[in-house]
Specification:
With 360 residues, the protein is α+β, with helices and mostly antiparallel strands. The chain folds into two domains: 90 residues, no CATH class; 242 residues, BirA Bifunctional Protein, domain 2, CATH 3.30.930. The protein is 40% helix and 21% strand. It has a seven-stranded mixed sheet, with helices on both faces. Strand 3 and strand 4 form a beta hairpin. The longest helix is centred in the first third of the chain and has 34 residues. The radius of gyration is 33 Å and the shape is elongated. Bound molecules: phenylalanine. The site of phenylalanine (PHE) has 12 residues, from strand 8, strand 9 and strand 10.
Length: 360
Amino acid sequence: MPGDRGLMRPMVTKISDILSAARGAVAGVTTHADLDAVRAKFLGPNGVLRELMKSIADLPKGDRPAAGQAVNACKSEMEEIFREKFDFIESRDVSTLLGGRIDPTLSEACAAEIFCHPLTGVKNRVLEIFSKLGFCAVDGPEIETEWFCFDALNTPQSHPSRDDRDTFYFDGTLSVGNVSKRNSERLMLRTHTSTVQVRTMLRQKPPIRILSQGRVFRKDAIDATHSPNFHQCEGLVVDENVTVCDLKSTLDFFFAELTGGECEIRMRPSFFPFVSPGFEVDFRSGNLGKLSNRWIEAAGCGMVAPSVFGNCGYDAAAVSGFAFGVGIERLAMLLFGVDDIRLFFQNDTRFLRQFPMAMF
Ligand code: PHE
């Protein structure tokens, strides 16, 4: 260090003494008023720190920049001492105000325990897996018209799902006069997220690679495996020359990622009005606890029916595509070994807190 070391060294000692004195003075303080008085003594216009600053002028010129830096560092540290004490008094006062029911001085480790609902966790995981394949998330309304939920999806008027014992309809109708070619439409709560397929195709041209997720509603009696309100995720891919092989490899990838390892899937022929051919998907994995190595039904899927393309203004001869749908509650029950769907909706944090954060 340039200049007279003999004069600079006492400065360093003085700073360290001042900081110790500030810590000592703050330690016994319990109110903001007392803290202000101590602060004035150290940081005020006639305080200890101001005196220290003035004394820099007595140092040889070469030592002044280093001394200035040391005094500034001292000032920052002292401000930190006062800030900490201020926060401490304040949080203790808040706690007193709240009757001591919370302790705001608890460390951040406790705050980190904030967790997400297992259904949100599974939904996010599904979105994350499909985003690796280039799918993007889209949304659609929960209140729909019959056209979007049934007609556009090739579901005839006589189909049992359209019965008002199965579906929640609103009283009255809505004047639409648009895509449905009717003047008015009955409003309802959507029974599946396949409505978003239709809305997306009406809005944009192929290629399409989307995933829609959200709440769906069916008039099911509540029991361990049914709820009138649950969540679905549905995928749609439309392009030239899309085949069942593309559908199968997409689902292979999804279930392997979801179960975190070796996983087989099988597709059984099944019927959904809006796909042809249609399939139910079962998967089998060694990573599923009690359910390991058993075939488990987990999704519906198929190749988009030509009439659905027609209803959405696509040329069915020029494009092809597939769609699939999974139930979020069902996936969560399988992955976590939960045997009653109602547990997800009862908001008992002792239940909700149990699920591994690693999943999410
Ligand atoms: N929407 C169907 C259901 O709710 C699931 C499905 C989606 C089936 C896409 C085939 C293709 O049951």
